[in-house]
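User: I'm writing a tutorial on reading structure tokens. Could you give me a worked example: one chain, its sequence, then its tokens, then a sentence or two explaining what the tokens reveal?
Assistant: Sure. Here is the example chain.
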Amino acid sequence: MAADVERGKSASHYVGGSFLHAGDVIRAWYLTNGPDVALVTYVAAAESGDAAAELADAGTIVRSVDFG
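And here are its predicted structure tokens:
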């Protein structure tokens, strides 16, 4: 089951969720503007000290995607 599920609209509609698997943090987002769809993923070792900051940066990037 996904944790930290988020839905929203910025440049595109998006939904994302986080998963823990085999010592990794996996975050996946789907983005769409209607006719276009993208799957974006982020994977890091759960014990990585940089994972939280990198995940925040990845979320900022995802929310800025504009299919144009």
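What the tokens reveal: The radius of gyration is 12 Å. The chain has a mean pLDDT of 91.
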